[in-house]
Write a structure and sequence with these properties.
alpha/beta; two-stranded parallel sheet; 8 helices
Amino acid sequence: MDVSTWMSLASDRYLPLMTWQRVAALSRDSLFVLPIGSVEQHGPHLPLLTDTLTVVHTLEAALHQLPKERPVYALPPIAYANSIEHAAFPGTLTIDGETLQKTVMGIGESLARSGFHKLLLLNGHGGNTAILKETARRLHLSSGLVVFSIACGSLWEVDPNELSEEEARLGLHAGQVETSIAMAAFPEWVGELPQAMLPPEDAWIGPEHAPVTYAWASTDWSESGVLGDPSQASLEMGRRWFNHGVQRLAECLSACLSWDPSRSSNRLIEKGGA
């Protein structure tokens, strides 16, 4: 992540490079986006900062698609995450869930004190998911903020037919999808692609998507840190998935900006009503 990335992102959209007077003049209904990644092993071919790089590049590209008058602004990313499942690999820097929660809570409460109402958590690391879901609710209750959440990985909408059956079920980390996205978003940091390393499963039990899941660490079945098949990654797939994800994120940002729960169509349905 070099200075040019941040200077590009900073063009009228990056809060830390504004003065406090300019921030005070922003619309109270502005949407602020907090990218959250990790510093953790991503196999022998991707950098430790992969999750953070992915969310920052995706957000940057999506912000460039928005009309200039749309008040959506980027906050500095949180690079450190709950990455205990990768802690055995040198270079992985992990914090506990309570620390991450307190950090996000502090940032959100600071925005609320400044008079703003909307925060989007853009998460790039699966290990943060459960923590951030609870944090979003706590932050909403403590501050009154409308807190949205998006998992960056959900933006790609990969066609399962483009993956092997095993990769579609078991490609959890640094596999075909994540490696292809990296090739599109930050190709200069992608090294030689290693072979597949897939976790065990059967009809009932698996690491993530089976009816019964089990707790795991990456060292349980991988010496390289890969949990998937990066050998099948390609730039063509990555560009297509990344561009689609960027467009989808831009649409999500616009939807969050316009969302007003006080005027939503949600209502109690009388017994016997349609």
